[in-house]
Write a sequence for this structure.
């Protein structure tokens, strides 16, 4: 099992950041590499089990299932159903924690997955830097004062 | 039940912050409210169930018990057992997380307790501001002092055992080399942190260079400098690397350009570069010492670095004269024991400080004229009382933060403070103008500056071995640990519960 962890400090209160990221269908509005997204079968975007199907700006298509969403912990977990990346058993969690000193937010994004051993380093870099940290940087920028 | 949760971002790597916070007894070194702390019964600081007994600056005494500690999650929790305030049912936890863009740390401190209703707001504010927020600021300042330095506090804090960084630092290779390349078992620090970062691994042993010898270690010395290397307090070790600066052993092979040493020679050393925590190593022979038949490997490994240090502290940094009054802190420790015996032999009156009654008995046996248990008694007052108000001519202080102010106060007019370590934390900033009130002298010796060439080192080695032979100093049998057990040796050393020297035994 390979694990990836990234984190970042977002210059806004956690409740405000959560309003944006709790929407499982909202990736195109803040993740710079996502072109468009829809929730399959007209489900609600906060319904556990719903599936988002989104297209990357490079054309790749990904389907992910929402596994958990907690408005108490400010966290959501999801699994990849289909993607161009050769990963299996991929489960990721995005969570927010308030930083009381300055009313900021710690955003953490982590994933676990299985993959071919020779692909591990490249995938960790691609997911950790290319996806998670890039998206958190965008979030940081968006709330930047 | 009220809940308090405070969190902040500290601009330092998470392992560095964790190394400070995981020490359950270390809060008196950074939290401004705490004057003194000790672990009851001499338990290691990171054992679940350990109880810390501490005193606040205002005199209040508290006891708190460690309920959980996880180095993996960088999390610990504890509860209050006794306190002067009604913080009933107080359970607190601390957790750290890395911030991966940049190199910062998220630190959350939360607790629950049940205050009496009429004192609720007051107690919540006390915990929030005076404990948690003040603690955040204190750790931030501690790290800033370490990294930025100031005219008084050096960077890295220089200690007697803080040689200048060596040029060719041995690095553990990232993987075991294939084929016929030799390997050796060694303790590798992959990243700065707690004792758990000391892990046994097989590492590559590079081919012998013409100007090197290969040593098979028989006994390896453990010193406080190794702790500073492990935590990153000194940058003598760059991870991944092998710590350790003292060992005895047998020469296995000699490079073509080496003279004066042959295979089979018994040798010892006490010098950089780091790398002694290993079964075998290659090394330049300049600072190696031949061992005579009457000096055992164990005594050499347990005593050489400390003996050489004691030699220059007592003869060069301050030349102790008959009739002088000498104050020695941490007198039951490895170097403290040597200082006590040797200073007495030089004709001085020896006043020793220790942290417990057991240690007091040890130090009395070694010949100290007076022993002060500093956890029970203000040692500066005691020194003044014992000397009829005169004070000590010289104070040897490797404790640092906890004792520096008291050492100044315990000195006589024209007294000399030799500050050669900071086992309890850096000494902070001092205005030297105030030293004029007693015309004090301060020294901050650096081990390397007294030992980095054969010409400088040799007289100290000869003097130490001579002192051993004549029975001027005795090195008691050290406490032994297996090489693989280095982490426990560090835990014991840091918990302040050891007396005498600690050594690691590689596999025979």
């Amino acid at each position: 099992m390979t694990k990836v962890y990234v984190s970042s400090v977002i210059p806004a209160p956690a409740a405000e950041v959560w309003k944006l990221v709790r929407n499982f269908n909202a990736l195109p509005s803040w993740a710079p590499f996502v072109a468009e997204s829809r929730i399959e079968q007209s489900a609600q975007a906060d319904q556990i089990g719903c599936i988002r199907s989104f297209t990357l700006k490079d054309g790749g298509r990904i389907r992910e299932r929402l596994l958990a969403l907690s408005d108490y912990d400010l966290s959501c977990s999801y699994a990849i159903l289909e993607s161009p990346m050769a990963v299996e058993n991929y489960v990721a969690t995005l969570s927010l924690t308030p930083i009381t000193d300055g009313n900021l937010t710690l955003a953490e994004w982590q994933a676990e997955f299985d993959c071919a051993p020779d692909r591990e380093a490249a995938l960790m870099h691609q997911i950790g830097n290319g996806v998670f940290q890039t998206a958190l940087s965008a979030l940081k920028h968006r709330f930047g004062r | 039940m009220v809940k308090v949760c405070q969190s902040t971002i500290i601009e330092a790597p998470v392992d560095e912050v964790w190394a400070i916070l995981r020490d359950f007894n270390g809060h008196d070194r950074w939290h401004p409210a705490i004057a003194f702390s000790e672990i009851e019964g001499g338990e290691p600081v990171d054992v679940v169930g350990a109880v810390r007994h501490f005193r606040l600056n205002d005199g209040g005494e508290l006891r708190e018990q460690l309920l959980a500690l996880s180095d993996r999650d960088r999390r610990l929790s504890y509860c209050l057992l006794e306190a002067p305030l009604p913080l009933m049912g107080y359970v607190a936890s601390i957790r750290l997380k890395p911030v991966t863009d940049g190199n910062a740390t998220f630190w959350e401190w939360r607790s629950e307790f049940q205050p009496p209703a009429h004192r609720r707001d007051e107690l919540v504010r006390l915990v929030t501001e005076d404990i948690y927020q003040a603690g955040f600021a204190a750790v931030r300042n501690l790290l800033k002092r370490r990294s930025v330095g100031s005219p008084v506090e050096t960077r890295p804090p220089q200690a007697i055992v803080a040689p200048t960084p060596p040029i060719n630092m041995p690095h553990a290779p990232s993987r075991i080399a294939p084929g016929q390349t030799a390997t050796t078992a060694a303790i590798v620090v992959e990243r700065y942190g707690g004792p758990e970062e000391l892990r046994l691994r097989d590492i590559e042993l590079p081919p012998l260079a013409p100007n090197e010898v290969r040593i098979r270690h028989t006994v390896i010395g453990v010193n406080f400098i190794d702790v500073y290397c492990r935590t990153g307090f000194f940058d003598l070790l760059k991870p991944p690397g092998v710590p350790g600066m003292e060992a005895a052993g047998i020469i296995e092979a000699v490079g073509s350009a080496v003279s004066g040493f042959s295979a089979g020679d018994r040798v010892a050393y006490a010098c950089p570069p780091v790398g002694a925590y290993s079964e075998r190593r290659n090394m330049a022979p300049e600072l190696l010492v031949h061992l005579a038949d009457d000096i055992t490997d164990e005594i050499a490994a347990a005593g050489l670095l400390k003996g050489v240090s004691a030699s220059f502290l007592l003869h060069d940094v301050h030349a102790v004269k008959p009739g002088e009054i000498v104050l020695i802190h941490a007198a039951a420790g490895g170097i403290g024991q040597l200082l006590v015996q040797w200073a007495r032999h030089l004709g001085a009156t020896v006043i020793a400080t220790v942290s417990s009654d057991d240690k007091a008995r040890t130090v009395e046996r070694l010949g100290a004229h007076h022993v002060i248990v500093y956890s029970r008694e203000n040692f500066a007052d005691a020194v003044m009382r014992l000397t009829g108000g005169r004070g000590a001519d010289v104070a040897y202080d490797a404790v640092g933060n906890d004792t520096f102010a008291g050492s100044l106060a315990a000195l006589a007019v024209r007294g000399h403070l030799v500050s050669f370590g900071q086992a309890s934390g850096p000494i902070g900033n001092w205005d030297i103008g105030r030293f004029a009130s007693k015309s004090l002298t301060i020294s901050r010796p650096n081990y390397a500056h007294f030992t980095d060439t054969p010409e400088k080192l040799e007289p100290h080695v000869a003097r130490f071995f001579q002192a051993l032979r004549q029975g001027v100093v005795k090195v008691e049998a050290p406490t032994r640990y297996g090489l693989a057990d280095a982490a426990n040796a560090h835990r014991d050393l840091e918990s302040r519960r050891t007396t005498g020297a600690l050594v690691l035994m590689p596999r025979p």
Observations:
- The first strand of chain B starts at residue 2 and ends at 10.
- The longest helix of chain B spans residues 120-148.
- Confidence is low (pLDDT under 50) at residues 149-179 of chain B.
